[in-house]
């Protein structure tokens, strides 16, 4: 409709443009006759010889014919203007007719000069035509004053000054007139009110697509075809998907039985792997075969497989061109919204992809960001995610500040309850494989965690490796091209970089898998434990964080990392995982001797099996909704039966629960999972919930952000205030102040202060599946 409105102007420009540029082309074809240079010196020349006089006259006749055609079109154009404009075009026509036969050079010069004058006159006519059409075709184009659209005036001023800064505005029909600005700002963007003189039925409200059932699928052929093979990173992902396909299929059958063939809605999902795009630098692909980090590619391969096996309609993008095509990005520099409604229910990406979408989706990112899920290895805490708060309080980093819901960030391990735990999978063993492993274990064999030589540059490494060498044969898998890396001691048997299956065989023989402290939180320790190894890792004192360690500096988290692999330390622990101070030689020596005596079986937490990941991702997709408005809580004019509100104490416990006879509110996790308690001063809600064997649940924060929660916990408030602070709701004993959270984006499990006791929403969890409460399926 927009393009149709401006068709007369566009046609006039096209008519004059075709004639003018056709003439210019013919003139340049004659350029060699009027220059002292050879024909070959002109970049426009296509002829190899000078035209003869007869040929020149023939070309001149063509020019005259072209001018005659242009003048006929100009006559038609003049009828569209006012009388004055018509008169001026007639004068221009007469001027051209008065050109008499003369020398070839003079005649061409006269034609060129008159064409220049003609172009100037046409531009003036078109400008007046647009101005005169304001109250004609378009109706009134004064900027409306509507309090519901307070930014309309400033946006009109911006468009007047900057509309040529991005070709996408012209793509949507903007031509420099106020009418085109208003149409764009009211129909493409949403800063101005609908225009009464526009046909509002031209953009009807789209009906939602009918819901389709998701059906588990075991055939991975279409998925492998989508992943492609253009890069070594993609080839790695294909190999992993193919190798684990049988385990995924078996897990899908088990989960379907567990869900009793529950009806599940099929989602349209875009997976945009931003860090693999050329525009982001793609530093990973060249290092796949050189000992580079594979954790991210392991996780992305497993995410793709889980989404596909769950039966969703998945599209994969690893380039900006693919992203543009899938989303419907208009041509230009990314200032304008998408050309249509978002064609996906969910978009999985990473921080690189999020930045690319910001650059190319324009205002559509703000409109559709509730559909986005960000795969974020180390986590993003709410204080860093809230742009205004982060800027004012020193939490601003190169990442974060996207104002997403905290649970839209999805981590590799469940270390940040404010985020959702996505995870990955490790290969499972059948009973035959488990028996063979236990039978073939070599009691004095150790494998070092570190494929890159830089990981062996550890202070004090020689001391503890020398101790280890007394008891065990040490093996390494360090990449090298021509000669042995000097960082690897001579007594270490280095196999070089091994393919995944050969590495698995090495781990199935080894008794010990030892880490040097880096890399942090990778998948390899879980794979080693799953193959029957004991994982020995260093304890960090003090704990590593963004405050004291370069690796974490700039990351959007204040999390304190107590060891190389905190998940293994906290959720698995002895005898499979042993965490000690490597700088204490006596402790290290005693630990090695202890390990020689221990026999362990292969172990893999359920949440890192194919079934565990399918279960978790299924629950997220069917239950997490960050687009629909939440039901207000507390409800208007709410009245509780007691001062404790909807909370009741659990027997013999300081923990409160949601009263069963209280009105139920829609929530996931359900309110039956809620456990309310207070932290001690200086303790985060993550720590407070863990101390009771529970998990902090940010989705339940809004249900405890009421003054009755303080009464239920026997906290005496002299006053109740509401403000933006990532530690609130909280109680200050020093001043008997009770503080509620003003901004829901700042509800945070992380964070502590010696000044406050925090109110913490905890929940129970399923055995082996910390991401889900017992009633969450």
Automatic annotation (TrEMBL):
<dbReference type="GO" id="GO:0000139">
    <property type="term" value="C:Golgi membrane"/>
</dbReference>
<keyword id="KW-0333">Golgi apparatus</keyword>
<keyword id="KW-0812">Transmembrane</keyword>
<keyword id="KW-0328">Glycosyltransferase</keyword>
<keyword id="KW-0325">Glycoprotein</keyword>
<keyword id="KW-1133">Transmembrane helix</keyword>
<keyword id="KW-0735">Signal-anchor</keyword>
<dbReference type="InterPro" id="IPR026116">
    <property type="entry name" value="GT18_cat"/>
</dbReference>
<protein>
    <recommendedName>
        <fullName>alpha-1,6-mannosyl-glycoprotein 6-beta-N-acetylglucosaminyltransferase</fullName>
        <ecNumber>2.4.1.155</ecNumber>
    </recommendedName>
</protein>
<dbReference type="InterPro" id="IPR052105">
    <property type="entry name" value="MGAT5_Glycosyltransferase"/>
</dbReference>
<keyword id="KW-0472">Membrane</keyword>
<dbReference type="Pfam" id="PF15024">
    <property type="entry name" value="Glyco_transf_18"/>
</dbReference>
<dbReference type="GO" id="GO:0030144">
    <property type="term" value="F:alpha-1,6-mannosylglycoprotein 6-beta-N-acetylglucosaminyltransferase activity"/>
</dbReference>
<keyword id="KW-0808">Transferase</keyword>
<comment type="pathway">
    <text>Protein modification; protein glycosylation.</text>
</comment>
<comment type="similarity">
    <text>Belongs to the glycosyltransferase 18 family.</text>
</comment>
<dbReference type="GO" id="GO:0006487">
    <property type="term" value="P:protein N-linked glycosylation"/>
</dbReference>
<feature type="domain" description="Glycosyltransferase family 18 catalytic">
    <location>
        <begin position="168"/>
        <end position="762"/>
    </location>
</feature>
<feature type="transmembrane region" description="Helical">
    <location>
        <begin position="6"/>
        <end position="28"/>
    </location>
</feature>
């Amino acid at each position: 409709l927009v393009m149709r409105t401006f068709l007369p102007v566009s046609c006039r420009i096209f008519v004059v443009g075709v004639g003018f540029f056709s003439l210019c082309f013919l003139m340049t074809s004659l350029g060699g006759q009027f220059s002292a240079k050879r024909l070959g010196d002109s970049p426009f020349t296509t002829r190899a010889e000078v035209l003869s006089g007869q040929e020149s006259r023939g070309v001149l006749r063509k020019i005259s014919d072209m001018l005659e055609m242009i003048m006929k079109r100009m006559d038609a154009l003049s009828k569209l203007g006012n009388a004055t404009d018509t008169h001026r075009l007639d004068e221009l026509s007469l001027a051209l007719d008065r050109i008499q036969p003369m020398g070839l050079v003079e005649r061409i010069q006269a034609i060129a000069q008159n064409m220049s004058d003609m172009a100037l006159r046409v531009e003036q006519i078109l400008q007046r035509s647009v101005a005169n059409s304001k109250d004609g075709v378009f109706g009134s184009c004064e900027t409306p004053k509507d309090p519901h659209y307070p930014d309309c005036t400033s946006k009109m001023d911006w468009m007047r000054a900057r509309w040529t800064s991005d070709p996408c505005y012209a793509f949507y029909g903007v031509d420099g007139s106020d009418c085109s600005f208003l149409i764009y700002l009211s129909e493409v963007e949403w800063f101005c009110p609908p225009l009464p003189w526009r046909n509002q039925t031209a953009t009807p409200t789209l009906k939602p697509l009918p819901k389709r059932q998701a059906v588990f699928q075991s055939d991975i052929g279409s998925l492998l075809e989508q992943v492609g093979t253009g890069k070594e990173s993609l080839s790695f992902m294909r190999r992993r998907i193919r190798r684990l396909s049988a385990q995924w299929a078996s897990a899908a059958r088990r989960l379907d039985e567990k869900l009793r063939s529950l009806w599940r809605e099929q989602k349209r999902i875009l997976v945009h792997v931003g860090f693999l795009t050329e525009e982001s630098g793609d530093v990973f692909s060249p290092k796949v075969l050189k000992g580079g980090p594979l954790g991210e590619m392991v996780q992305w391969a497993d995410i793709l497989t889980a989404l596909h096996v769950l039966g969703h309609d998945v599209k994969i993008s690893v380039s900006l061109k693919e992203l543009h095509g899938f989303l419907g990005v208009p041509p230009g520099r990314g200032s304008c919204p998408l050309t249509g409604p978002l064609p996906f229910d969910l978009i999985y990406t990473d921080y690189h992809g999020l930045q690319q979408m910001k650059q190319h989706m324009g205002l559509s990112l703000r409109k559709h960001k509730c559909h986005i899920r960000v795969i974020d290895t180390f986590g993003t805490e709410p204080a860093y995610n809230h742009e205004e708060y982060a800027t004012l309080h020193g939490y601003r980093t190169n990442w974060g500040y996207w104002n997403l819901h905290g649970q839209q960030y999805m981590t590799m391990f469940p270390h940040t309850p404010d985020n959702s735990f996505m995870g990955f999978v490790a290969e499972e063993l059948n009973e035959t494989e488990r028996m063979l492993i236990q039978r073939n274990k070599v009691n004095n064999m150790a494998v070092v965690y570190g494929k890159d030589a830089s990981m062996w540059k550890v202070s004090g490494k020689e001391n503890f490796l020398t101790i280890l060498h007394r008891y065990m044969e040490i093996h390494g898998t360090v990449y090298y091209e021509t000669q042995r890396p000097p960082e690897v001691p001579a007594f270490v048997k280095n196999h070089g970089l091994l393919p995944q299956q050969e590495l698995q065989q090495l781990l199935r023989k080894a008794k010990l898998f030892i880490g040097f402290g880096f890399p942090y939180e990778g998948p390899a320790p879980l794979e080693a434990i799953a193959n029957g190894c004991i994982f020995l890792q260093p304890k960090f004192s003090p704990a590593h964080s963004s405050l004291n360690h370069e690796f974490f500096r700039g990351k959007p988290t204040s999390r304190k990392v107590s060891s190389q692999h905190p998940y293994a330390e906290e959720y698995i622990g002895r005898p499979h995982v042993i965490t000690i101070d490597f700088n204490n030689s006596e402790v290290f020596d005693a630990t090695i001797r202890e390990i020689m005596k221990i026999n362990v079986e292969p172990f893999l937490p359920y949440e890192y099996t194919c079934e565990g990941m399918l279960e978790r991702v299924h629950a997220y997709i069917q239950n997490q909704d960050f687009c629909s408005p939440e039901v207000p809580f507390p409800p208007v004019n709410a009245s509780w039966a007691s001062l404790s509100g909807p909370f009741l104490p659990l027997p013999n416990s300081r923990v409160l629960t949601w009263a069963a006879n209280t009105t139920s509110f829609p929530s996931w996790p359900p309110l039956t999972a809620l456990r309310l308690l207070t932290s001690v001063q200086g303790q985060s809600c993550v720590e407070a919930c863990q101390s009771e064997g529970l998990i902090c649940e940010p989705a339940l924060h809004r249900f405890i952000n009421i003054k009755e929660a303080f009464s239920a916990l026997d906290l005496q408030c002299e006053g109740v205030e509401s403000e933006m602070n990532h530690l609130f709701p909280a109680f200050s004993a020093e001043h008997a102040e009770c503080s509620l959270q003003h901004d829901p984006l700042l509800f945070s499990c992380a964070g502590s202060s010696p000044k406050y006791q925090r109110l913490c929403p905890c929940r129970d969890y399923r055995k082996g599946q910390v991401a889900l409460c017992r009633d969450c399926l």
